[in-house]
Amino acid sequence: MNINKKTKQIILLISLIAILIVINYSFIDNALENFFLDYEIVNVERIIDGDTIVIDNKTSVRLLGINCPEKGEMYSEEAKEFLRELILNKTVKLKFGKEKYDRYQRVLAYVFVGNKNVNLELIDRGFANFYFPSGKDKYYNDFKRAWEDCIKEDINLCEKSENKCVDCIILSNFNFKNQKVVFTNNCDFDCDLTGWNIKDEGRKNFVFDDFVLKDNEQVKIIVGEGADNSDVLFWSGEDYVWTSSGDTLFLRDDTGKLVLWESWGY
Model's pTM, two decimal places? Predict the structure, then answer.
């Protein structure tokens, strides 16, 4: 009698455990994956902008390997909308790079929906440039190729300037150690660069203010403080712009279209 009762209790206990395992299989499976592997399965709750999202538990995630336009800049809303359509309210996989958090304590990750690398898709569609401030990782070559393909497609952020000076202005020197770049006007006519801007891979931005580069002359842009003249302009407000691990310079005209870009150090 006691044996039968004990057997029934064991059977009941095993049945309850089996039911719990079935009910919570997805949760347990995800928890085990997150513990043992270098990725997490999460749900996307909100899109902040083209390269920032909010996942479970109100955690902010900064997409690795890319930089999208800031709010108010060209294609910022398009990038945000593209991301919203692709992953909002969906389950995605986060894969991590060299560092898991940035200085704002946001998670740093590559986002995958199915087998699609969302970060890469943003570059491919011309809504982001590649961005590797900590140096290149296993995705760098793919991301750079995506940018080069975007240039060939001539779309969105990759669209080439139609300004008459687009083939006149060349980058004749790019010195990250001295934080200096030099542009030369190779044409036999003056080029009005007012409103043109230089950006790095990230957020740093220099705008030419009422400046004309005369024919066959050069202008140096130096990071630091000083008095501008016709030969030298100072990129004030920054301690440095070009990172020692590698960087990219993007020159755009006053309409935001691309004049030239140049990577170094990778």
Answer: 0.83
